[in-house]
Amino acid sequence: MIAPYVQAFYIAMTDWRGVSAAPRFTGLENFQRLFSDGIFWKAVSHNALLLVLLPLITIVLALFFAFLLNVGGKGVTGVRGSKFYRVVFFFPQVLAVAVVAVLFQQVFRPDDSGMLNGPLMALGLSPVGFLSDPSVAFWSVLGVMVWQAVGFYVVLFSAGLASIPGDMFEAAQIDGAGRFSLFFRITLPLLWDTVQVAWVYLGILALDVFAIVWVMTDQHGGPDFSTTVMAAEIYRNAFQYFRFGYASALGVIMFFFTIGFAILALRLSRRERIEY
Amino acid sequence: MYLSRKSVRKDRRTRLGPLSALSHVALVVWTVLMIVPILWTFLASVKSEEEIFGDAWSLPASLRWDNFARAWEQAHIGQYMLNSVIVVSFSTLGTMLLGSMAAYVLARYPFRGNRGFYLLFVSGLAFPVYLALTPLFFVVQNMGRVIPFIGLNTHAGVVLVYIAYSMPFTIFFLAAFFRTLPTAVAEAALVDGASHTRIFFQIMLPMARPGLVSITIFNVLGQWNQYQLPLVLLQERDKWVLTQGIADISTAAGYDQDWSALFAALTLAILPMLVVYTVFQRQIQSGLTAGALK
């Protein structure tokens, strides 16, 4: 289990290209090359953008839906059909990312045979290059990731809400709390722990993202590297260019990003727990 | 009394009226966003080639079930699915057997280095897969040089890697679960002369059933949906698992000009999950979220 990781750190400091000849030790040369590599910085910036936006959008949507499904109805019960909604919302979670990627490749087709562009063109609008326009493609990737993730967090937050005693909401309602204060003053503070767990999970998902980019986008992270992420560059360098040393250096950097994120998240999440 | 309560409720309903309507709209919109892409794919899977390239929202003139036959045979979806089933059955079985035994021992038997072993196993959670991709590739390649049965492009090799990767979370989860179980039952069995093996299989495992079900579902889905590891470890086409087959199929469909088979293949990949999910949705939801709530 551990050995491959130790090796990864060593390979990162060699110019190994996978052939049998002994790899030459090059110290930090790979890292120097990385930092002057424009594609590397593109990948890092995409991961960073995802790290901020994916948790933010997913958690806001999931909290909103979980609130509606559990507390937002009449009295303090969920709206009608809340069980059905929860089942439907969660479904994308059981699909393989590779399957979702191919599915949305078809949904995003650039001409009128695409599920989205068909109606757009029927309305007389010009088609959107969801995957072919470099300025749009990244947002398509983000959209699909949110599409797949929200349901999981709706269920997670619902489980969290179920453990909050119902009389809390009832007491607040008797005191005249509307739905907004019910959400911001009661639900959110009591659910804060679960929200932080969700934040860490989604953050790791944003740093780890590979399959959706590799399978769905043009030229594996294109067009013109406009959607590429670190994991895709690792795979490309290692198994398409056979630059194993360089790829491992990328992996090491990514490892420190992930660890850094985890430590930061743990630090920030130290907060008093509300007992009930 | 009854009347007044009813009128109060009615009063509140009118007060929340527009907001309530809006929230219903939001829920319905999201439901549509979930369902429509999948239904659209199902629909396209029975269309002809021209219909797929025509208007996206037209209905098929006739249902072309032969798309499925081509996807199953010529696009090898049948073969890939069989490969997935083989790999996932063995790897889940291995993960659960080894993981539950290790977790049980670590949770219940105090011995020197217990804590150390536990931390060593669980530390695997902190290391991301991609960091190890390159070394892993060569580790498996070297394994194959010694024992050809478990090298690159073998399902047994992938099974071993899957087991290794599923172990940290399985042990983390099950050890926590075993610790919550009462000790009295096992002690009584020990007094009655049951061996440790027997206690484990006949008493502890049945008691840990809810936890085992959750983590089994977690592992089955995780391994079934895995893409990056097989991409590295299985490079021969006939060994591919389903996710690889699906991911490659848009390239293949481009060559063969057979897009209807692509939609049929997607449907074949989605439909079984849909059926399994509808039947077991409670267990699946609790199984997948269990890890996050620990």
UniProtKB/TrEMBL annotation, chain B:
<keyword id="KW-0813">Transport</keyword>
<feature type="domain" description="ABC transmembrane type-1">
    <location>
        <begin position="81"/>
        <end position="280"/>
    </location>
</feature>
<dbReference type="GO" id="GO:0005886">
    <property type="term" value="C:plasma membrane"/>
</dbReference>
<feature type="transmembrane region" description="Helical">
    <location>
        <begin position="259"/>
        <end position="280"/>
    </location>
</feature>
<keyword id="KW-0472">Membrane</keyword>
<dbReference type="InterPro" id="IPR000515">
    <property type="entry name" value="MetI-like"/>
</dbReference>
<keyword id="KW-1133">Transmembrane helix</keyword>
<feature type="transmembrane region" description="Helical">
    <location>
        <begin position="117"/>
        <end position="139"/>
    </location>
</feature>
<dbReference type="InterPro" id="IPR035906">
    <property type="entry name" value="MetI-like_sf"/>
</dbReference>
<dbReference type="GO" id="GO:0055085">
    <property type="term" value="P:transmembrane transport"/>
</dbReference>
<keyword id="KW-0812">Transmembrane</keyword>
<feature type="transmembrane region" description="Helical">
    <location>
        <begin position="80"/>
        <end position="105"/>
    </location>
</feature>
<dbReference type="Pfam" id="PF00528">
    <property type="entry name" value="BPD_transp_1"/>
</dbReference>
<feature type="transmembrane region" description="Helical">
    <location>
        <begin position="199"/>
        <end position="221"/>
    </location>
</feature>
<feature type="transmembrane region" description="Helical">
    <location>
        <begin position="159"/>
        <end position="178"/>
    </location>
</feature>
<feature type="transmembrane region" description="Helical">
    <location>
        <begin position="21"/>
        <end position="43"/>
    </location>
</feature>
<comment type="similarity">
    <text>Belongs to the binding-protein-dependent transport system permease family.</text>
</comment>
<protein>
    <submittedName>
        <fullName>N-acetylglucosamine transport system permease protein</fullName>
    </submittedName>
</protein>
<keyword id="KW-1003">Cell membrane</keyword>
